[in-house]
Amino acid sequence: SSPLFLQKGACVWVPDPEAVWVSAQLLQDFKPGDGLLLLKLGDVQHPVSVPSDLPPLGNPDILEGENDLTSLSFLHEPAVLHNLRVRFLDYNSIYTYCGIVLVAINPYEQLPIYGEEVVDAYSGQDMADMEPHIFSVAEEAYRTMIREKKNQSIIISGESGSGKTVSAKFTMRYFAVVGGASQQTSVEERVLATNPIMEAIGNAKTTRNDNSSRFGKYIEIGFGHQGNIIGANMRTYLLEKSRVVFQAQEERNYHIFYQLCASCDLPEMKGLKLDAAEQFRYTNQGGRTWIPGTEDALELERVRNAFTVLGKGSWPHGGAVSHLSRAGLCVSLQGEDLSLLLFSKLLGVERAQMAHWLCHRRLAVAGETLVKPMSGQQASEARDALAKHVYGQLFSWTVGQLNAALRAQRGAPVSFIGVLDIYGFETFDRNSFEQFCINYANEKLQQQFNLHVFQLEQEEYVREGLPWSRIEFSDNQPCIALIEGPLGLLDLLDEECRMPKGSDESWARKLYDQHLNHHPSPHFSKPRMSSTAFIVSHFADTVRTRPIRMPGGALSLSGLNSSIPNGSLRSGKRAHREHKLTVGFQKSPQRTFRVLLQIVKVLTLYTPHSDFEERVTLNFIRTVQRLLKERADGQPRQLLLDVHRFFPVTFSYQPPPLLRADQLTIPDSLKVSFLRRV
Ligand SMILES: Nc1ncnc2c1ncn2[C@@H]1O[C@H](COP(=O)(O)OP(=O)(O)OP(=O)(O)O)[C@@H](O)[C@H]1O
């Protein structure tokens, strides 16, 4: 808590638009009721009015660079950031403790701190005696498991690209060394061999991370009586299946597709009749299909070697992955299409049947079964749904195969250490069902953390009669109840999926009725401008979600839909509304950027009707892209003016009922060339 009086010379932190927080010094004593602080910021005197709270106070110099944040006298955002920064820049240390939590900063360079000699140095040592390190956390889990014969878990969380997977791999490597056996292709080697395989089928290039895990993973490493690894088991969560059929600009599909395409000339791959990744819609939507510094063909080699270590025979033997790649790459609805032929052949289904059921659906009406042709839009969605399903099944199948290879051979493990590597909390401009699930998972993890760190700890103090004044912590149960409780978001979603004519609108209406009108929840609200979106106030942030459903009740995932505002540009009325919004956003530059980006994204998905239209569209996209790049120097309003100057029709551009690129009437060749040129 803040002291009541501050002496001249005391340090405080003040918010800064550039540096986030800057340190300032008090130029005169301050006492409650003064209402004004006189600060020295750099060389400038700065009177700051104090409405209610004092600014966060600076810590004494002696605590600068402490290796445990809990030893700071004042623990608040600026103190945490400053301490981490000092440790990173001045002490070259990427790790800092915060009690039992290890905070890691991604150095984005190889540091010489993970060698065997470092493992040896941490092995057998107490956490409190050692500098913070991921090995120290692993050692603590290992020792506690052995000493107390209790299973342990390490939870690794953080935003995309923060280093979760790398950290998980280091903990696994640590266990492999300290719990290792001597024989070749031992189980710890097999545990490590799962990494390249899982990365090939579950990781992809995103704009934030060239090797981003698009699934959550929990691996339980089982130990025997002697503390040696005897088996492992892996569970996966929330694979981002939408990526199989759609990739945003600069992103890629799962690595395995590109690895197979890059190896298509190998004799054993010939039967798959693959081609360059640029040739397939499911692999070329992000633009560039290669990652600088990565050789996809070599990566496939690593994957195949890993399969060998796991005793799963040669790669083509794990042939279903190849099938799926083909499924992902080739599903197409043109009847005579070679891709459809290959896809059907590889999956072992009859081509004519496949073509028929991709374009028709069965309806049960009054006890009778009718077969109805689907629209082009529906059929392409059905094709995408099939590709996602095949990939999802194959992913689960592969995990099952790996688990079989990791299963303990001699007796059951006596204890285990679990390592959870899962997406951190996510909020984007447009959040879909995936973000909703990820944030729900994080809400549950946070609850677990609260329970562990605050509640159980305090209960133990009280039980042992230690003098202790209870610390209040914010309990996130109400937010969890909103999601998973009776008549909660998931309950109502289930109900909506069972309705024959369920829709986003009607689901959202039910949510508003229940959580705004009948039983208002402080964690739920409705955005002003939408009747399909809702806002959940999570512990970390408020997130606006707009799920869009696919036919058949399956919720669509972010990808494709996130690029199409409301999925509705073909509706003139809605297009007009988007247009009005755009103009309305002029007062809010940040939103304007987002809308411009959105327009660019949408336009890249559209097929122009004429050369002229294509030229106009491309011109617009290039102009906006260039200006968006230039906006880095923070001239948002200028950007808006520039857009008008360079491209005066921007905001009066009323798209005629344009066709989406994936509509069937448009030949693939045109789509590919258009997308490539964009
Ligand atoms: N400790 C580290 N030392 C060196 N480089 C690191 C370290 N941690 C992460 N990196 C670098 O950062 C990149 C991203 O890390 P990683 O893939 O582990 O992130 P992530 O949090 O798992 O991201 P995502 O959620 O997207 O999967 C790595 O490929 C690596 O180059």
Automatic annotation (TrEMBL):
Source organism superkingdom: Eukaryota
Organism encoding this protein: Scleropages formosus
Family to which this protein belongs: Belongs to the TRAFAC class myosin-kinesin ATPase superfamily. Myosin family.
GO molecular function, one term: ATP binding
Sequence ranges assigned to domain Myosin motor in this UniProt record: 64-544
Name this polypeptide is given: Methyl-CpG binding domain protein 3b
Recorded GO CC terms: cytoplasm; membrane; myosin complex
Binding site for ATP: 158-165
